[in-house]
Write a structure and sequence with these properties.
Strand content: 15-25%
Shape: globular
Order of helices and strands: HEHHHHHHHEEEEEEHHEEEEHHHEEE
Radius of gyration: 21 Å
Length: 407
Amino acid sequence: MKNSGYTKLLLAITLLLVACYLVGCSQARKDPSIFNSKDVPVIELSGSAYERGQQHGQLLKNDIAEVYSKWKQNINKDLKRDADSVLSEFIDATNFELAIKKWTPGFLEEVKGIADGSGQKYADVYAFQLVDEFWVYIDSISNSKGQHCTCIGVSSSKNHPAYTAQNMDLENYMNGYQVLLHIHGSSEVPEQYLLTCAGLIVTTGMNEYGISVNPNTLMELQSSNDGLPVAYVIRGILDKQNNEDVLSFINSIKYASGQNYVIGIQDSIYDFETSATQITRFYPIKEQNRIVYHTNHALVNHNVKPWYQNYHNKVMAGETKDMNSETRFGTLERRLDMSFEEISQDIIKSTLRSKDNEKHPICATYKEGGGVFTFGSVIYTLTGKRSVQVTKGSPDQAEYKEHFFTR
């Protein structure tokens, strides 16, 4: 009887401590040492896909409510229409769930967990994951969105480990909601670090096996209303453990939107331009796979939407060098014009912080009332002591904070 009473008391104390922890974390945005600090807060997640989503939703409940409200306000402002109506039409016009269930079924459970944990409608949480696909949908109506991500990859040498890196550029309303999801590894799921926004399953990430994914939009390439959305492509890759499984996965799926993927797999660095039905490997330096980089215009995949054909022809003819993506690509060419053995972490950082062209810089500092900004910058160390470095906002305004894998 005494042992039974002691056990019940211990259980009650444990539940009380867990409840206090969850309440404290759900209000973490008010704590200057967490959400208002200069570093991206780390959110620890474990368990099944649904459990991880539920933890995400509970721990960031207030933040998810805020950023979803700002997301809808942004849609209202940009499209001069009711956001709920636009999102409903978007979901009705697409059938991504079928592809998600086919190739990455567990992640819909994670989305359901976020909805249940945060108290948000499942339809809203589901739609919020479709960042690129919504841009594609709006582009098909008005051709009004430009994208601004910049990616780099370099294999290891005697002087340095292998790296991939990126400035993740997103819309202004996401500022202040940066989080780094730390998924604890298990026998079924690799340990992962995922830079993202509260309420979103990923924007870019790396796993414990030295596999990383850095995506950037290629709006001109053909899309598909029943392909696999970008967030799920990234998470699908990061669930893999080796080169063979990653390459098999990316060559077997149908893509929802035109996208470039810089993929690091330990010391192997890849760059793929993907459209709905075509995947093409890109080499910035012909047949040289030791260093890759990319911005937001297709260079080797010619599966282009009809309304972008004229633009694509001009890209191929070298007639668009003063445009945004092309200007940033030119900056990468100049700054990385060296042997891959010479490229250091400092060179990568200075490149991601660069503003060589005032109108079209690689680093886009947040401006109140502006459009797209550098939401966060990442550097992934894939060989040696593996780690993730991340900034909160643009790297010209923040230092990189390094996080190491525990397994």
